[in-house]
# Entry
Amino acid sequence: MALVELIDKNTFIFDKSITTKDELFNSLTEILNEKGYLKNKKKFLKDLYKREKIISTGIEDGFGIPHTKTKYINKPIITFAKTSELDDYKALDDTKINTVFLIALPINAHNSHLDLLSELARLLMDSEFRQYIKNAEQPDEIVKILSV
# Structure
């Protein structure tokens, strides 16, 4: 399963008015629900936070990869959000998160989430790749960058 196959650019969020992790997670959950990806948005959000409590999904340079395996989605999805710097969501290098790829897979996805997470993390290790993502202002740009 390739990253690009799971992306739905119609779920992407570019919103500088989002300033907290709660606003980010609520906004992502809301759009996934509106687009028909969720069976139960309240329980999906709870699963997202449950995963986040284990250890922050912030990685580095303002990027985060929140992810969950849950029974409350209809089909696998990777979505994207670009926000203001979030004071309450920090990366391992202590930078404030403002760019996020969210991975949501069904509970029975076995280790697919680890493969996707690892592939995305590997891409994000490249500073040039991160800069392209940070400079993107439209969903099509993100899809194009991920498709190369």
User: Anything to note?
Assistant: The beta strands are 13-15, 63-64, 67-70, 77-90, 96-106. Residues 3-147 form a domain with the Mannitol-specific EII; Chain A fold (CATH 3.40.930.10). The longest helix spans residues 21-34. The chain has a mean pLDDT of 92.
